[in-house]
Amino acid sequence: MMKNNKTPACLTQAPAESRTLAKQLDNRHIQLIAIGGAIGTGLFMGSGKTINLSGSSIILTYAIIGFFLFFVMRALGELLLSNTNYNSFADFAGEYLGPWACFFIGWTYWLSWVLACIGDVVVIGGYMQFWFPGLSLWIPAFGALALMLFMNMLSVRLFGEMEFWFAIIKVMAIAALLLAGFAMVIYGYTSPQGTKASFRHLTESGTIFPHGVSGFIAGFQIALFSFVGIELIGVAAAETRDPETNLPRAINAIPIRVLLFYVLSLVCIISVSSWHHISPDSSPFVGLFSLAGLPAAAAVVNFVVLTSALSSANSGVFSTSRMLFGLAKENSAPRALGKLSSLNIPLRGLLLSGLCMFCGAALLFIIPSVMAVFTLLSTLSAILLIFIWSMILLCWLAYHRQRSDLRCNSQYRLPGGVTMAWSCLIFFMLMLFAMTLKPDTRAGLMIAPLWFIWLAIAWRTQRANSSRTALSKQTD
Fold first, then answer.
1. How far apart are CA 371 and CA 376, in angstroms?
2. How far apart are CA 376 and CA 368, in angstroms?
3. How far apart are CA 287 and CA 193, in angstroms?
4. Backbone phi, psi, residue 190, to 5°
5. Using CA of residue 375, residue 323, residue 154, residue 161, what is the dihedral sign?
6. Are 289 and 269 in contact (CB under 8 A)?
7. Which residues on adjacent β-strands are paired with residue 118?
8. Cα dist. 271→159, 226, 266, 275 in Å?
9. Residue among 404, 465, 392, 461 at smallest CA distance from 105
10. What's the rounded Cα separation, in Å, for the pair 93 and 109?
């Protein structure tokens, strides 16, 4: 495949060769990071609320989102593999859309993961109350966050190992759920509440669109949050060995993962429990076994969904520190954040992100409801991720227009080309509209613009400071 050796515009102050992030992630790490990103907290915790809104049509919701995000990831893969100097999507955003895009996409991705990580540790508090009902939510939330920060201070390979085993636990749990769920349906298992497991629960009257089309559309918000982290392999690219082989493998496996992890698991949950008995305020994965009268199994599943939230929080801690490191190297963040520890870890960025996460987790003192905090944070994170995914597509469109030489020689392309890129952008616009339909998601949509206003002000201030510095040097 033909390589472009042009340095990205946003790296003019710090060439890619000067970066010293260690390439310690192997193929097994990147594959399991991709799997972990495809199985998020939104599936384990938030699917109860989406099922309550959408009924069995939630299966279609996840399939639609997975379909479009697969093409976003193909666009991301083509861009990353077109230039070996790229360390993340912030780099190609700077080259194809301008330095402002590098600044906006880098800081927005950082905030999206800060919010997602806060949401994850909040959920961890809720999971711990399964065993300790009287436990204050903030104690396990703060404890989990401290653990993730400490583990990420040691080495990137340790992060990869943690994600590897977290993802294996997720896969084994979903495999067990599929086997148990289908066995219950086959043998006609009846719960103590009188619910008989049957595939008829998927199509019975009032199940497919229980709250009409508006309920179906509203279900997309938390379902979308389930896929937060799917783009994480784009951040880990700088620390991945043999990305030309490993990235395409991870991306190409997304459709089968969506089918196995989302579609089939939701089919099992609804078939065994019936959507009428699924609580919107708790995990339906735990509820499935509780309704079936298997409390011991429910406790095991609760442990699994707890590790899933830990996995997502771990990804958030990792990605925020790397994004701050990249922004500092591009003079879009304080230079001190661009220094690595003796273990090749961007420690200062890690600590700054951790401080912000601790402050955000303090929301539990103000809003004691896990689902209320989770919905607000997941909405904000989903909006910011829609911006990131849209920017990736806009970068691909600019790349397609400006670099026909690379496009023609690329061995890993976006299927459907320009038509598919615009289709994905239209889909994301519809997702923003969907968030206006419910008060709890509408609140997040009204808050999000404040972030972009702040970014615009920060960008203009930075440009003005850079101009004054350049002028001062010329005068001297």
1. 9
2. 13
3. 13
4. -115, 125
5. positive
6. no
7. none
8. 37, 21, 8, 8
9. 392
10. 12
Instruction: Find out whether 393 and 421 touch, Cβ atoms under 8 Å.
Output: yes
What DSSP string describes 91-138? HHHHHHH-HHHHHHHHHHHHHHHHHHHHHHHHHHHHHHTTT-TTS-TH
The pTM for the full model equals 0.80
What would the two tokens of residue 445 be? 């949509």
- What's the pLDDT score for residue 412? 83
Question: Measured in Å, how far apart are the chain's first and last C-alpha atoms?
Answer: 47
DSSP-based three-state secondary structure for 288: helix
* Tens-digit pLDDT profile for residues 401-416: 988 777 777 778 889 9
85 and 444 Cβ atoms separated by less than 8 Å: no
Q: Is the pLDDT assigned to residue 228 strictly greater than 80?
A: no
Name the residue type at position 387: F
By residue count, the chain amounts to 476
Buried b (16+ CB within 10 A) or exposed e, 210-230: bbeeebbbbbbbbbbbbbbbb
426 Cβ contact partners less than 8 Å away, ≥ 6 residues apart: none
